[in-house]
Amino acid sequence: MNKSQLEARTRANTEFGLAIQREIKDWQAKGYSHSVACKKVEGKIDAWTNEQKALDNERSVVEATNKMGGMESGSLGNYANSFPLPNKRLKGREACPLAFRESDFRAVHKAMESGQNITIKGTGGIFGDNVETKAFSTVDPLLPPELFPSIIAKIHEHRLLDHLPVIGMSAPSIEFLVHSSSSGGPPAITSEGSLKPDITLNFTSSTVAAQKIAATFGLSWETTLDFPNVISYAQGEVMKQIIDVENNALIAGTSGIVGFQQTSGILTLAYTTGAYLDVFSQGIENLRTGSSLAVANLIVIHPGTFGAVKRQKDSQNRYLLAPDPQDGQVSDIWGVQVLQTTACPAGTALLLDTRAQRLMFLWKRLNLAVERPSAVLNITGLPTS
Q: What does pTM read for this prediction?
């Protein structure tokens, strides 16, 4: 394969990788998790990976051939700059390949045919014996260091709000009616002309006020001139920190935004002894048989607690939670999707029917309205790690 053919295949595979990324985002926009979205395009991902491996091998051959022939054009550095591969960093063999003379390869081939031992040395000054030391001048110590173009960012948790339904509001607060109870009745089989049971529906109202989570940041004018990338980074970082506070409030907030675990009327269940999976099964059952007839579709849990649940074994040293055979990961408990976040207090887990909850939004303000508290169950007493 020549250089032009390699360039064409590289461009085609890059476009293929970007198309896969767009398809994954489309599935996520439809409500699927990242792992599920990746499974839906698993065949395409495997095809891209295999093509990439083939291109890596061909690129190594082309670069070695160029080096042996004294050619500097079409180097790997040019490939890396012209055709960036999606979500891929260069490896050492790609960024700095070792090259050998063609005559050395021929000598190795002859030695293999005759069963003899042979040692060859790479070309270039880094191999010691080929170095000829001469007096020289250098300005390297006087040159300023190269500034990496991006900031090494802090890592933040995913947004819990992405897994909950929302509704817009046009005023600073919203009021909704709740059918709290029914009196009289119940309905019964009656004969013609007889009195029918009378049912009274009792309603209460609940008002939720939107709350603002906000912050400011400052950058000097000189900083923005010297390093313009810091502006976009600072904006994104502050928003991520706001999301961190939002996550904590939605799970365990006590004022302003009252989180799930602090909402009055939710179901609770404490783990005591036995298999951890049993308490999750009992919690799912309690939601289904509760007044909301809720069906759990999301478990929010601390990564340390989930790790302890996954590591529990039976008497024969077998894991109780088997990983998905397709990706080798444990992403659900009893068929309910698991969302890991450090915003959830260690040792606890939330079982939710997200269809019975609402996030009220007013521009950049929000609040949590737990429409049916009995559609939320908080498990306590679980291990913290």
A: 0.61
